Amino acid sequence: MAESESGQDKTEEPTEKKKRDAREKGETARSKELNTVAVTLGGAIALLVFGGFLAQTLMEVMRMSFTLSREVVVDERSMGIFLLSAGKMAIWAIQPVLVVLFVVSFVAPIALGGFLFSGSLLQPKFSRMNPLSGIKRMFSMHALTELLKAIAKFVVILLVAVVVLSNDRQALLDIANEPLEQAIIHSVQVVGWSALWMAAGLLLIAAVDVPFQLFQAHKKLKMTKQEVRDEFKDSEGKPEVKQRIRQLQREMSQRRMMAAVPDADVIITNPTHYAVALKYDPEKGAGAPLLLAKGTDFIALKIREIAVEHKVQILESPALARAIYHSTEIEQEIPAGLYLAVAQVLAYVFQIRQYRSGRGKAPEPLKPDLPIPPDLRRDS
């Protein structure tokens, strides 16, 4: 089991941040065996597909090279032009194979690990110049793995080569008796099929190496419990800092809430443990009364003090105060189940205002048993 430098076991799965940071550093799963197999297969297939055209073009170059006229031989400029023409023909003939090899060599690494460009990989690492580090790498588990893979590749290629050459022995002997052009084309085909079978043999090595590289990359990214906790602190913030932020947010919210209390139409209390501030303004399109402020104990006391200071009506209705406190959030409308009870309270408050202004008679006392649905009642 992998252990960190602190001695803790790396038992935790890597986080997304860990994976993202590793990818930015260029640390991702790569398989050289997969790249080798892909390039070898691509080259063999390209040689089989374009081998005839390549052989015929090269034979044409050879024919031109061995049928020079006397004028071309003695003219230095003609020789240069002839050499340039032969070079163009050779490049044109080999171009399809080179294009296939280029595409395969570019796509194969992307197939495992995706496209990745990291500037950190271009930076020089002077630690690699340390002889002790080099000796340590020579005798590491990675070096042993690479040695075993090299031996396995040698054995596989040797066995495949022996089988292929044994099967093509007669064909190779027949090449000596064939016409030149046919012999060259036949030779290209033999080389192409031999390379294809050898690449197919290397598929066994790649089939083992790819899962191994994925496992090694995942194992390297695994984290200790302490690393996970440290990363969480760095990304989410330390608990004491987050607690302080939440405290400041609560204080700011309370200040805004207290500033809205003077605008309330009524304060409904428990009378001591709960206090809620309501306002109903139909001129602004409010469908129902809004809860401007609420609180318990000390906050409830502060709401009552501000209400007394600004002459906001205070009414005692323990059941209604508890129901509004537990069912409604700040700056939200009260639930429909409390419409009737709150309507009676607001009607009583508006009647008191009219009476105090000399425009009406004294209202009857508010009924203590206001209609509150059972699902909205709270005993405490």
Automatic annotation (TrEMBL):
Output the GO biological process annotations, alphabetical, semicolon-separated.
Answer: bacterial-type flagellum assembly; protein secretion
Please give an example of a GO cellular component term from this record.
Answer: plasma membrane
Q: Name the keywords, alphabetized.
A: Bacterial flagellum biogenesis, Bacterial flagellum protein export, Cell membrane, Cell projection, Cilium, Flagellum, Membrane, Protein transport, Transmembrane, Transmembrane helix, Transport
Q: Where is this region: Disordered?
A: 1-29, 360-380
- From the Swiss-Prot or TrEMBL record, state where the protein is found: Cell membrane
Matching entries from Pfam families are given as: Bac_export_2 (PF01312)
Bilayer-crossing regions? 37-58, 100-122, 143-165, 195-215
Query: Does the keyword field hold Protein transport?
Result: yes
Start-end of Basic and acidic residues biased regions? 7-29
How would you describe this protein's topology in the membrane?
A: Multi-pass membrane protein
Major site of localization recorded for this protein: membrane
**Gene3D superfamilies, alphabetically?**
6.10.250.2080, secretion proteins EscU
Query: What family is this protein classified in?
Result: Belongs to the type III secretion exporter family.
* Described function: Required for formation of the rod structure in the basal body of the flagellar apparatus. Together with FliI and FliH, may constitute the export apparatus of flagellin.
Entry protein name? Flagellar biosynthetic protein FlhB
Which organism is this protein's natural source? Pseudomonas cremoricolorata
Q: Which gene encodes it?
A: flhB
